[in-house]
Amino acid sequence: MPAALDAIVAELSDSDRQERIDLLIDFARNLPPLPDRLAAQRDAAHRVEECQSPVYLFVELLGGHVALFAEAPIEAPTVRGFVSLLLEGLNGATVQEILSVPNDLVERCALPEVLGMLRVRGLSGVLRRIKGEVTRAAMAAGGPDQGSATRAARDEGRAGDQQRDHP
Amino acid sequence: MGEPYAHPDALVSADWVQEHLKDPKVRIVESDEDLLLYDLGHIPGAVRIDWQGDLQDQIVRDYIGAEKFAELCSRNGIAPDTTVVFYGDKSNWWACYAFWAFTLFGHPNCKIMNGGRKLWIDQGRPVSTEIPRYPATKYTVAGDNEARIRAFRDEVLAHIKAKRPLIDVRSPKEFTGELLHMEEYPQEGSLRGGHIPGAKNVPWSRAVNEDGTFKSVEELREIYQRELALKPGDDVIAYCRIGERSSLTWFVLTYLLGFPNVRNYDGSWTEWGNLVRVPVAKGA
């Protein structure tokens, strides 16, 4: 897991309930706006369907490093906060690092205790979506550098499917 | 001005709430789908009551018991004679759900703030991030209205046999069985799609306006009494997926149209669509 994300997970899991809420609120408030060039591309293809609220995600690959951009409404602070947390923890990471983020990240952040089980399942969908988009971007980029990443992505995709079939 | 609702006392305006912010006999309660909205800013002095964390038992799929309910009221400064005003996101789904749960325990004086959280914010009314503290009250649970307003699956089976009216308030695609969950709510899935035989589909959203306020009594009557041919004395059961959207319909029928015999089947499709060998109808 990228060091930045690791630090966020540690901070959340070491906090008490109200501190976790406050941290998520801070993340929600600090989500940077989409750059204008991406704001124009908010369409169904970039919408994160796993979320109830309109959340848009953009993944770019620059020299083996991932740049993530997202928009989520402030009226849905939980998902906006989690998206913002993922962006802060994952931006600049490599494809491999992102694909190695554990699928139980939401639990590691100790969010089910705060939010309840029904609410957190939607959040895990955001991470799955990021991994899926990163995999797609890596495959589209191809090249020797992304070759191993692409294989890892396929393996991860399979592991993910199995997990979904047997929750 | 149109005709007043059947029980106009059950609904208050944002203006009314703003005038009663400091009224010690009134407690404002926020209930949301998104838990963090309250922390982002709420009506000054409002407390948060969460449908998952506060009103539901954390182990068994059920509501908390009377003792826990009394504790919940006590720590939120709600006395037996306090007027409790609920508001929230999603056109007051969860506010209606909390209202319904409070009614289960016989709390006598509950109200919904028309328009909910969105209208309050859109109108630029005051919000606060301060979490209020109220002195604990002595709360005794007034009574048990479960038999009157809550339906269980065996009662729903009996209801089908008796050909009594059932309202399915989910989206049309959930009703026909095309979708196994509400669009964008994959966490609330079921093994079978469709609806309870005999149920009529009237999505909850038809009862509210764009701004989250309830439609007028004439408009509501047009939907439920003319289109659906319900009569005020009918024994009606409403359901959705987990019982939150149908508690809004329960509120509309009971308090805005004055139907005295409406129950909410809170097991809803997440129970029915997973039950073995119960009848299921597919298609429109």
Give a written overview of the molecule:
The complex is a heterodimer of chains A (167) and B (284). By secondary structure, chain A is mainly alpha-helical. Chain A has 9 helices and 2 strands. Chain A has helices spanning 3-13, 17-29, 36-39, 77-90, 95-99, 105-108, 112-115, 117-141, 143-165; strands at residues 56-62, 65-71. A two-stranded antiparallel sheet of chain A has the order 1-2. Chain A is globular and about 45 Å long. The two termini of chain A are 22 Å apart. Chain B is α/β, with parallel strands linked by helices and 284 residues long. Chain B is built from 12 helices and 9 strands. Chain B has helices at 14-19, 37-40, 51-55, 66-75, 93-104, 116-122, 146-149, 153-161, 172-176, 217-227, 245-256, 268-272; strands at residues 11-12, 26-30, 47-48, 83-87, 110-113, 166-168, 200-201, 236-239, 262-264. In chain B, the strands form 2 sheets. In chain B, strands 1-5-4-2-3 form a 5-stranded parallel sheet. In chain B, strands 7-6-8-9 form a 4-stranded parallel sheet, sandwiched between helices. The mean pLDDT of chain B is 95. The interface between A and B is medium-sized, with 24 and 17 residues.
Question: Gist?
Answer:
Chain A has 167 residues and is mainly alpha-helical.
Topology:
The complex is a heterodimer of chains A (167) and B (284).
Chain A: H1 3-13, H2 17-29, H3 36-39, E1 56-62, E2 65-71, H4 77-90, H5 95-99, H6 105-108, H7 112-115, H8 117-141, H9 143-165
Antiparallel strand pairs in A: 1-2
Helix pairs in contact in A: 1-4, 2-4, 4-8, 8-9
Chain B: E1 11-12, H1 14-19, E2 26-30, H2 37-40, E3 47-48, H3 51-55, H4 66-75, E4 83-87, H5 93-104, E5 110-113, H6 116-122, H7 146-149, H8 153-161, E6 166-168, H9 172-176, E7 200-201, H10 217-227, E8 236-239, H11 245-256, E9 262-264, H12 268-272
Parallel strand pairs in B: 1-5, 2-3, 2-4, 4-5, 6-7, 6-8, 8-9
